[in-house]
């Protein structure tokens, strides 16, 4: 608080600088490394490096490439610590350390965790991994078969290995851990398998589980106690994680946490979303299905919940609530507020007061017809009754799709422009609820889905959103969903990739395309930028199509079945014609 | 003459229709019974020898009742959760011509019963043996490998693809006749 206030004052004095910036404690001055996928605790994915700028970006060229040897969806962010780059591959989750101080960045070490191959059969949407995290000389990462592992960053030797996920109930780990105050925060995947969601804090020193917070069930297992003060009445009451479900349904009700966590050191709070309720067919779970498709603020030391807000009560369309949250301080209607900005899967760009969970703004950032807005008095999403799904009923043209207006692909924020750069989808779908049996370790979905391109026919978009003005600044149409993350720099360049395989640099101010490079496969990874040992700025991206959107290629699915890959294949029938599976790191620099 | 041909045709059709409906009135209900071990490779040192056929395979794969039961069970046991309606998802596509562990009834039966190492679970303790054969027969129908007189004809709800009795043989797709 003390640290960030003078910065806010300084920013508001200069009219050319937007008075929106991350708190200094969560986004310290750039050390030109990249130690966690989101860049910093505020999750800005903003780099202060400016050697590459609007004038010279057209000269970018390949510095080196590296084949991961794994041709599955590459969603991970490469990390750079000192003169070493670390990458973690999709299953079998190999970790490579590359020596950036040597010509061609040779392999420094390689670690193979040898996860159980059967884990591939319970991973809902390709066998991805969203990256590792670095802290205190260690690399922390998750394996698909449910292990969190700490490696010595220097030698690649394992320090501890904790088994926290059970594939026989359908549990996998795909997210990147976040290390906060000596604790490694990890959540489970399995929302399509009836897995009960949780977040665990593991001791960074020895890997023991310090606390576990479930996202469904009785208050004491959700770590809801006397400190829990949700802003809205709909989230108040005893044991809502039990009473808002049919009997026992919360035990197989999803609410998994496989996305992003942010941390505010001043408030001593972590913020994490919760995934969709299971099964997808809503007739099998009447009620609000707490605490799914929402967001928790928790004390990182104990896991105790401070507040909760439910983006999508009684979710009808697989709207997981696990996207990234960007922590910013700004003036909101004349008053300084500590906010949390969330481009949510249900299609709304939320601005929340992160001290209380109050919704300040919720505006659609693309086509939405599954709901009619958010009631700012009650905080409740107003679901559109015309788009309500159920058993034996086909509901057509629901926008956005199960994959959301935006899925996991993280956005970036520049304090120079005040804009949030959002890679996202533009898709709609037909849904038919069907009966489903719960069989542990098998899918628990109960919905036939087929997706189609959204209004305009472009299946993806890259949108710059003016947070203060609550409206779009500019938007670029993309043929395929933009399933890659974004990074923005002080050189006013935004980088992102397309599923055809183009790696693009556009102007942060106007969106003008300044440079692009065709990589060997479609891009669904997270770009990063860093200063190399030679003192120059580099940009790195993993190329390799896959994930849910690209499963048609990485899993060789058959486009004649409209419902393949939970309906995504129907919207991606032509992807096999433009790209093939891959797994290659590309690193760029100026000549 | 024309009358004779029509009679012959209808008699033939009627006979086929009889086979289509033929089935055991006392199904074997034991869980995960033995069955013939099936090689999953065509590579056998010294040359391939035909593996003996299981007599269940032939009687189930051309039978309308078993195919229709297979289609129901495919949803019931959540096969569709991973393989969708044949196009695949978490698991591989079943309607194409690619078979990782063999395309015979015996191979598919063994895959469902015993599982496979890269993610296919073993259902030996969950699905009665006859129902595994029914599932195997339906899986073959997804790639056009079941007689169209016996394969399921339509869905009650959303049609994800042409009905199974109109599925082309996947092995001939994209090739001129």
Strand content of chain A: 25-35%
Q: State the total count of DSSP E strands of chain A.
A: 39
Q: What would you say the CATH architecture of the domain at 64-169 in chain B is? A: Orthogonal Bundle
Q: What's the CATH class of chain A, please? A: Mainly Beta
Mean pLDDT of chain B: 84
The CATH superfamily of the domain at 64-169 in chain B is identified as Cytochrome c-like domain
Biggest sheet statistics of chain B? none
Q: What is the CATH topology descriptor of chain A?
A: Methanol Dehydrogenase, Chain A
Quick one: overall form of chain B?
A: globular
CATH topology of the domain at 64-169 in chain B: Cytochrome Bc1 Complex, Chain D, domain 2
**What is the gyration radius of chain A calculated from CA atoms?**
22 Å
- Enumerate the spans of chain B where pLDDT stays under 50 for 5 or more consecutive residues: none
What CATH architecture of chain A would you give? 8 Propeller
Helix content range of the residues of chain A, please?
under 10%
Structural class of chain B: mainly alpha
What is the global morphology of chain A? globular
N-to-C SSE string of chain B, H for helix and E for strand = HHHHHH
Largest sheet of chain A: 5 strands, antiparallel
Q: Nearest-angstrom radius of gyration of chain B?
A: 17 Å
CATH superfamily of chain A: Quinoprotein alcohol dehydrogenase-like superfamily
Index terms:
heterodimer, A: 591 residues, Methanol Dehydrogenase, Chain A, 5 helices, 35% strand, B: 177 residues, mainly alpha, 6 helices, 39% helix, globular
Please give a quick description of this structure.
Chain A is mainly beta. In chain A, 5% of the residues lie in helices and 35% in strands.
Structure notes:
- The complex is a heterodimer of chains A (591) and B (177).
- With 591 residues, chain A is mainly beta.
- Chain A has a single domain (5-589), classed as Quinoprotein alcohol dehydrogenase-like superfamily (Methanol Dehydrogenase, Chain A, 8 Propeller), CATH 2.140.10.10.
- In chain A, the strands form ten sheets. Chain A has a five-stranded antiparallel sheet with strand order 1-20-21-22-23, with no helix packed on it.
- With 177 residues, chain B is mainly α.
- Chain B has six helices and no strands.
- Chain B has helices at 2-21, 55-61, 64-76, 79-83, 105-114, 129-142.
- Chain B has a domain at 64-169: Cytochrome Bc1 Complex, Chain D, domain 2 (Orthogonal Bundle).
- The interface between A and B is medium-sized, with 40 and 30 residues.
């Amino acid at each position: 608080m003390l640290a960030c206030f003078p910065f806010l004052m300084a920013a508001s004095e200069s009219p050319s600088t937007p008075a929106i910036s991350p708190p200094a404690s969560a986004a310290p001055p750039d050390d030109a490394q990249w130690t966690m996928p989101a860049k910093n605790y505020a999750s800005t994915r903003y780099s202060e490096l400016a050697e590459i700028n609007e004038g010279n970006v057209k000269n970018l060229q390949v510095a080196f490439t590296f084949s991961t040897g794994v041709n599955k969806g590459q969603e991970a962010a490469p990390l750079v610590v000192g003169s070493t780059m670390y990458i973690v591959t999709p299953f079998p989750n190999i970790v490579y350390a590359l020596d950036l101080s040597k010509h061609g960045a040779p392999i420094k070490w390689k670690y193979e965790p040898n996860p159980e191959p059967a884990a591939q059969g319970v991973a809902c949407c390709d066998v991805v991994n969203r990256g590792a995290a670095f802290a205190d000389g260690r690399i922390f990462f998750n394996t698909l078969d449910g292990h969190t592992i700490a490696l010595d960053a220097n030698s690649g030797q394992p320090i501890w290995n904790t088994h926290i996920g059970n594939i026989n109930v359908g549990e996998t780990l795909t997210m990147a851990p976040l290390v906060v105050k000596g604790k490694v925060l990890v959540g489970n995947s399995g929302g399509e398998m009836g897995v009960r969601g949780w977040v665990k804090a593991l001791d960074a020193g020895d890997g023991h589980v310090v606390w576990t917070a479930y996202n469904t069930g009785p208050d004491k297992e959700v770590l809801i106690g006397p400190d829990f003060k949700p802003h809205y009445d709909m989230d108040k009451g005893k044991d809502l994680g039990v009473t808002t479900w049919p009997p026992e349904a919360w035990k197989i009700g999803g609410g998994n946490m496989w996305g992003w966590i942010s941390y505010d050191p001043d408030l001593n709070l972590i913020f994490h979303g919760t995934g969709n309720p299971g099964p997808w067919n809503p007739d099998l779970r009447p009620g609000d299905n707490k605490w799914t498709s929402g967001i928790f603020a928790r004390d990182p030391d104990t896991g105790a919940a401070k507040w909760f807000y439910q983006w999508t009560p009684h979710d009808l369309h697989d709207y997981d609530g696990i996207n990234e949250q960007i922590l910013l301080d700004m003036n909101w209607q004349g008053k300084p507020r500590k906010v949390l900005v969330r481009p949510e899967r249900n299609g709304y760009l939320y601005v929340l007061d992160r001290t209380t969970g109050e919704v300040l703004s919720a505006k659609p950032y693309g086509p939405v017809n599954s709901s009619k807005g958010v009631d700012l008095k009650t905080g409740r999403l107003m679901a559109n009754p015309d788009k309500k799904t159920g058993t034996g009923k086909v509901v057509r043209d629901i926008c956005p799709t199960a994959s959301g207006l935006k899925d996991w692909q993280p956005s970036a924020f520049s304090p120079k422009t005040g804009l949030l750069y959002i890679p996202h989808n533009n898709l709609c779908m037909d849904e038919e609820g069907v009966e489903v049996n719960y069989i542990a370790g098998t899918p628990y979905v109960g919905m036939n889905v087929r997706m189609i391109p959204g209004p305009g026919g472009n299946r993806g978009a890259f949108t710059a959103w003016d947070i203060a003005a609550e409206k779009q600044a500019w938007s670029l149409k993309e043929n395929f969903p933009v399933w890659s993350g974004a990074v923005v720099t002080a050189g006013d360049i935004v980088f992102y990739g397309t599923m055809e395989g183009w790696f693009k640099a556009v102007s942060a101010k106007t969106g003008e395309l300044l440079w692009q490079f065709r990589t060997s496969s479609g891009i669904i990874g997270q770009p990063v930028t860093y200063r190399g040992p030679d003192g120059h700025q580099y940009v790195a991206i993993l190329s390799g199509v896959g994930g849910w959107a690209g499963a048609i290629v990485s899993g060789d699915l058959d486009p004649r079945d409209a419902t393949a890959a939970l309906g995504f294949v129907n919207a991606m029938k032509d992807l096999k014609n433009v790209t093939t599976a891959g797994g290659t790191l590309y690193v760029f620099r100026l000549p | 003459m024309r009358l004779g041909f029509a009679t012959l045709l209808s008699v033939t059709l009627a006979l086929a229709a009889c086979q289509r409906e033929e089935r055991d009135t006392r199904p074997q209900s034991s869980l995960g019974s033995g069955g013939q071990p099936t090689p999953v490779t065509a590579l056998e040192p010294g040359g391939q020898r035909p593996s003996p056929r299981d007599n269940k395979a032939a009687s189930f794969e051309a039978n309308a009742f078993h195919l229709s039961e297979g289609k129901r069970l495919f949803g019931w046991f959540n096969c569709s959760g991973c393989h969708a309606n044949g196009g695949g998802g978490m698991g591989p596509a079943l309607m194409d011509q690619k078979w990782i562990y063999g395309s015979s009834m015996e191979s598919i039966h063994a895959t469902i019963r015993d599982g496979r190492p890269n993610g296919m679970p073993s259902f030996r303790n969950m699905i009665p043996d006859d129902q595994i054969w029914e599932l195997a027969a339906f899986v073959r129908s997804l790639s056009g490998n079941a007689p169209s007189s016996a394969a399921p004809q339509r869905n009650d709800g959303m049609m994800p693809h042409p009905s199974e009795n109109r599925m082309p043989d996947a092995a001939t797709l994209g090739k001129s006749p």
